[in-house]
Predict the 3D structure of the following.
Amino acid sequence: MSILEVRSLQKSFGSTRVLEDISFSLERGQALAVIGSSGSGKTTLLRCLNFLETPDAGTIAVGGETLFDAARRASVSDAEVRKKRLHFGMVFQSFNLFPQYTALENVMLASLLLAKERSDYKQHRREIHEQIEHRAIELLEQMSLAGRMSHYPHQLSGGQQQRVAIARALALQPDILCFDEPTSALDPELTGEVLRVIRSLAAQHTTMIIVTHEMAFARDVADHVIFMDAGRIAEEGSPAALFENTQNERTRAFLSRFSQNS
């Protein structure tokens, strides 16, 4: 059974249709790469999955639970939206760390806020805090940031900040980890740092959706690739099928431009 089912998703901003009839599924433990030109709808797709935008039509289901159905839309409280977002861990291209918190505090923050909603929080506050801190330390060590936990974002390189952001996204143990062009703000050396972390996560069978312009990376890491063009899925398939046996003319033109710019 698929961990994620997206069916007939649509999204417009004013008179501009940004997503048009987007349907796909994702198996648990798989990595899905989403490629395409700027403005093709890739980031909007992730924002709809993470409930940062509300689709105009379609359904989103995770683990068999329908999280969104435009045909049965009802008013949803902020608490309900937060609960739905827990299924997805989001890593943004611009890091989005809180500048007033250390690396460790950034990773712990969401877990602490959720813990405070527990009925037993006051009674077990110290124990809960220690558990959250232990989890955050483990994740930062996994990101090779053991010596940077007390550093603030401005004291970290771009690659280090993005690795903190990945640790933060993993802290709540989401069903699906989403990356929105995680290396676009980094120079080539720092890009390599972040891609190595994502490769490691893929090797651990972390379920991921990766929006990327790194074609060689997408070919190596993804189990399945979607090419988006003008808000639609123009072509999809295995990396071998899409990169080596392209059927769609628009996909072929996009990949040709990429190879010329490499």
